[in-house]
Specification:
There is one protein chain. The protein folds into two domains: 74 residues, no CATH class; 135 residues, Nucleoside Triphosphate Pyrophosphohydrolase, CATH 3.90.79.10. The longest helix has 25 residues. It is of the alpha/beta class and 218 residues long. It has five helices and eight strands; from the N terminus they run H-H-H-E-E-E-E-H-E-E-E-H-E. The strands form two sheets. The protein has a five-stranded mixed β-sheet, sandwiched between helices.
Length: 218
């Protein structure tokens, strides 16, 4: 097993154990089971600290953070984060991209807000980050960050093929350094993240007439 694969599996294991423990404590806060869930959090925190080359004191801080995040009952069920991404081309068939505050380029995207439908979230994020008004046309893909080898936070990304219907390009002062349009074959560098599957999916939807939603196989 390669080192990258090992680190990815370790990150997945820690996240999985932590989620099981936090969800368990949300539904069972006392008794024998609760004690075992607390032990799982403690051991997962030790592994997280070891992976980060951190001290035992920092491991305890990690554990406390996870424990303090536990919410009782149904609201405490730990699930992956969900984000919405916008794939939109201009009349010259160039793709809308933003330069994030990290300096890296990506399609406009953001976590889904509570109380807002996914398509509504797409419209909101596009306007906030770019100043452009978009109309979501199709759900292109539901992509699992774990399937791309991303060892950070577990995210389901919903990509929407969208049409630009108004507005003027305007970077958000806190979220976006720049806004631009680029051919798929000449995307700006560096790109954010590790997953590049979306580029081929964007090509298929915009240039090849694909309509079926992509999702990671079981």
């Amino acid at each position: 097993m390669s080192q990258d694969r090992l680190l990815l599996e370790l990150a997945r294991f820690i996240e999985r154990v932590t989620a099981v423990a936090r969800t368990g404590l949300a539904f069972q806060s006392e008794g024998f089971d609760a004690e075992r869930y607390e032990d799982l959090l403690k051991e997962a925190a030790r592994m997280q600290a070891a992976a980060l080359d951190a001290s035992l004191e920092e491991a305890e801080s990690i554990r406390r953070g996870w424990r303090d995040a536990v919410i009782s009952g149904y609201e405490g069920y730990v699930t992956p984060a969900v984000g919405c991404g916008i794939i939109a081309f201009n009349d010259c068939d160039d793709l809308l991209m933003i330069q994030r505050t990290s300096g890296k380029w990506w399609y406009p995207t953001g976590f889904c807000d509570v109380g807002i439908a996914p398509a509504e979230n797409v419209v909101k994020e596009a306007f906030e980050q770019t100043g452009l008004i978009v109309e979501p046309l199709r759900l292109m893909a539901i992509m699992d960050s774990r399937k791309s080898g991303d060892g950070w936070r577990h995210i389901y990304s919903m990509l929407f093929y969208s049409r630009i219907i108004g507005g003027t390009p305007r970077p958000h002062p806190l979220e976006t350094l720049d806004v631009g349009f680029f051919p798929l074959e000449m995307l700006p560098y560096p790109l954010h993240g590790r997953d590049r599957r979306w580029i081929q999916i964007a090509r298929e939807f915009h240039f090849e007439g694909r309509i079926e939603t992509y999702f990671d196989p079981a």
